[in-house]
Amino acid sequence: MTTTAAHPAARAVDQALTAVGRVLGHVDRLVGDVSRDSLAVAREAEALYRAVTRETGARAGSVRDAVRSSPRFARVLAEAARTIASYRIYRARADVAGSRADAVDALHRRNAERIYELCVQLRGGILKLGQFASARVDLLPPAYVDALGRLQDRVPPVDASSIRARVEDELGRPVDDLFASFDDEPIAAASLAQVHGAVLPDGTRVAVKVQLPGIESIIDTDLAALRTVARMLGDLPIAGDIDTVAAELSRSVRAELDFAAEADAAERFRARFRDRDDVVVPRVCRERSSRRVLTLERIDGDRLVDWLDRADAGERDTALATLIRCFCEQVLVCGEFHADPHPGNFLVLPGGRIALLDFGSVQALTPSRRRAYAQLATAIVAGDGPRTTALMAELGFATRDGDPDALRAFADAFLDAFRDTATTFDARALDPRAEFERALALARRHPIARVPADFVQLGRVFATLGGLVLHYRPRINLFALIAPHLARATAI
Length: 492
What we know:
The chain is an alpha+beta fold. The chain is built from 20 helices and twelve strands. The protein has helices at residues 3-6, 8-30, 35-54, 62-97, 101-122, 124-134, 142-149, 160-171, 175-178, 215-232, 242-255, 259-272, 304-310, 313-334, 367-382, 385-395, 404-418, 432-445, 453-472, 478-490; strands at residues 181-189, 193-199, 205-211, 279-280, 293-297, 302-303, 336-338, 346-348, 354-356, 362-364, 398-399, 448-450. A four-stranded antiparallel beta sheet has the order 1-2-3-5. A hairpin with a 5-residue loop joins strand 8 and strand 9 (354-356). It is globular. The termini are far apart. The model is unreliable at 1-6, 23-69 and 417-424 (pLDDT under 50).
C-alpha cells in the first residue's frame, strides 16, 4: 500500500468520495447532466485532501479534525445532488406529462424540510447558508421560507453543560462567580453560537453569546463543501461570480468566529447611533467577554418578521422605512455596515424602534467606494445608461460576454425595468414572482461573470431589504428615503 493510501486523511476522503460517488452515480443514470457535478465533487475532495496533508506537520489535531469532519463533506454533497436531481427529474417529467401546482409544492416541501434537517444537524457554515437563504422571502417558494425561517433563532440548542464549560474556559472563573444567575435555556441558538440570558452581580440583565464548542474545527470542511455545491449550481444564470461570492462568504464566516472583533464593531455602531431615537444597539460588557464569549446588554423585543406579520399597515411602513434609512446611513455615510441582515438579527421594540443585533459580520467601504456606489445609484435613478455602464465597469462588474457593449446592454435592460418606478416607487404594485422572472431573464441574456468583492456583502443587504419590501409592500417613497444619503456620499 502506498504512503498516500495509508494516510488516515486520504482514507477518509476516499470514503467520502465513495459515498458521494454512489449517490451521484445513481443520479447520473437518471439525469445525464449531473455527471458534471461528480467531477466537481472529485476536484474539491482532492483539493481538500491536499490541504489536509499540507497541515499535517503544522497542527497536531488538524488531520484528526479533518477525518472526523469528512462525513459532513459527503453528507452535504449527497443532499445537494439529491435535491438538484429531484428538480431536474420533475422538470423532465413535466415536459412530458405537464406541470401540476400541487406536485411541485409537495416537492418544495419535501426538499425544504430535508435541507432544514441538514442545517440543524450539521450547524456550522451549512446552517449559516440556510439562514442567508431564509431571508429571500420574495424569491423562495413559501415552503422554503417557512422551513428555513426556523433557522433564524429557533435551532435545537447545544446542552447547557457544554456552554457553561466554554464560558468558564474562556473567562477563567466559574459561571456562578461571573453571574448572579445564568439561564440554561438559551434565548436563541444559531449556526456558530447560542445566546443565554444572565444577570450580573449588580443586577444588570445581559445576553451572553457563546461560541459553540468545536465549531472552529468544522468550518473549513463546511466551506469546502459549500464551494463545491456552488459549483454544482454554477450553470444557473443567476449564480453569477461563484468564486468571488464563495471566497467572500468564507471570509465572512471565519471573521464571525472572533467575538473580540465583534465587540469592537458593536461599540462602533453603538457610538454612531447613540443619538438616534429609532435605532438601538446593545452595550458591550467587556469584563465578561473574550474571543469566544460576548456579553451584551439584554434587549427584549419582538423578532422583526413576527412583528411585521401582525402589525398594521402604518406600523409596518414606519418600521421598514426606519430599517432602510438605517442601512443607507451605514453604507453611504458611515462607510461600515451590518453585513448579516437576516431578520433574526433585528428586534422591534415598543414605539417601533429597531434594535440591531449580531455584529460578527461587518463590511467597510472606503470613501472612494462609497462615492462610486452612490454615483451608480444616482445614475440608475436618473436613467443615465452610459454613466451607469461606466460606473459598473469602474467598480469591477463584468459580464460573461467580456465586452463593454454587453455591460451596457445589461445596464440598459436594468434601467428599462427601473426608470418608470425610480422616483414613484410603490411596492404594493409589484409582483414578486414577475420581478424574479424579469431578473432571471436579464441574467440569462447578459450573465454577470465578475462582481467586486465588497458587493457580495452589499448584495446581501440589498437582497434582504428588497425581499422584505417586496413581501410586505409598504407604502413608502423609496427615493425620498435614499436621496439625502446619496447626496452626502457623492459630496465626499
